[in-house]
Amino acid sequence: MMKLDARVRYTKMMIKKAILDLLIEKPIRNITVKEICELAMINRATFYSHYRDAYDLLEQIQMEMYNEFEVALSSPNKSNINNVAEEVLSLVNKNVELYKILLSENGDKMFLKRIADIGQKSTFSELKKQYPEANDKQLHLIYTYIAHGSLAVIQDWVNSGMLESTQVISSIVNSITRRAITALK
Q1: How far is Cα of residue 76 from the mean position of the Cα atoms in its chain?
Q2: Is the dihedral angle over the CA atoms 76, 119, 122, 134 positive or is it negative?
């Protein structure tokens, strides 16, 4: 049984690698299961035993990323915004090739929005605790500004080759966040 599990993990890894290699060249809408199978050196039946189609495969890859973000954003240190930025940047750094592809022209345009949505509930409730006098509309606007601005900085950092350290980018994100939060005072 252990040998089968290792084989299945290896097969899935090869399938994921194949679609990511293809996403470097073209958008998901132009990728066929046949191409994925040829590149992964598997047959179509093997592919279909794990995924419905190329979109399902990409969605499962993204779900793994979302789950990692949820864990980072639900950590005990999430109330300290500095820790959250560092954890998120560490995740990106750990999976840099994947993020480069997902954030590229051929990636899913909704990927960043979904990541921003992951932290909304927990961050919103933290802001509400810290600034009980702020109304929900203010909190929503501040969160939107912080999340999308931070993600734009991270996207630019990834797309420009990650020349700065995670500490430098974290410092920039944290500075922007602190300034945005001062609007609630």
Answers
A1: 20
A2: positive
